User: Fold Alpha/beta hydrolase from Hymenobacter cellulosivorans.
Amino acid sequence: MASFPYQPDVLGPDFEQHRISQASDYEGPVVCTLVRLREQVPSPRAVLYVHGFTDYFFQRDMALEFRRHGFRFYALDLRKYGRSWLPHQTANNVRDLAEYYADLDAALAIMRAEGSTTVVLSGHSTGGLIAALYAHDRAPRTQLAALFLNSPFLDMHQNWLNRNVGVPLAARLGRVAPDIQLPANLPTEYGRSLHRQYLGEWEYNLAWKPIEVFPVKLGWLRAIHAGHRRVARGLSVPQPILVLHSDKTVTQPGWSEQYFQADGVLNVRHIRELSPQLGPRVTVQAIPGGIHDLVLSRPAVRAQVYQVLFEWLATVLPDPGQAG
Assistant:
């Protein structure tokens, strides 16, 4: 079995990381970072988790839940996010979502070399959009067993005029002027509902996942818009897909208790209506009281998330004794 040089990780002694150098892009050198549990279960089953926008992997509890259910756990900090954000780079910036495919290819190759033959690709929010597009585009050459998408970002949570006029025009401009910067214009209330320094229960690096999300460039907006258009036209991901989302969207302006029990980032109606466009084997389920990142919901809610997830995985994955 292949051996790779892992280093201690910021999450402490239970985790370790392996930095992967990638080809340089329009901003210079590029890396991505594979994180894994240091003590893995002896199983061919594994999960690769991909975070969302203005985000990185910090969800220790999720990793331990996967291990408890017999999965090896890995997470990927994509290029220009979290552990992989280099000083010369614009945070989170890409011009085409396919730029992330090299990161996913590299991570999955390492996982296979380390004995993972039945791999679940898991993506949250923007990571869910990336995971679905990757599974569709790489279907002939990957051996993914299933996808789990946690509140995937399948459309803009904007009013009709912005979604149908403003965003398409800005995306078109992004073709010729990709470096023009815009404020992301997302509410700070969601971040305040998560972090222990404010109103939440979670501890994470506010430099990598700030309360006020990173601004975006027109090139990034164009890449997201192109991904959304592909989903709207329909993908053909061959693997079984589980999409979980909250049962409601935050509707009150400003701070409210809704942020503890609804999606404060995306419109859950978009997720519900667009998810069947991802492929022929999609299961979509609402989680009552869930927030945008369902695994960061209140304890009873995230317990339901894991119950639904692992019951579904038990029905769609091959028997571990026959994997490989």
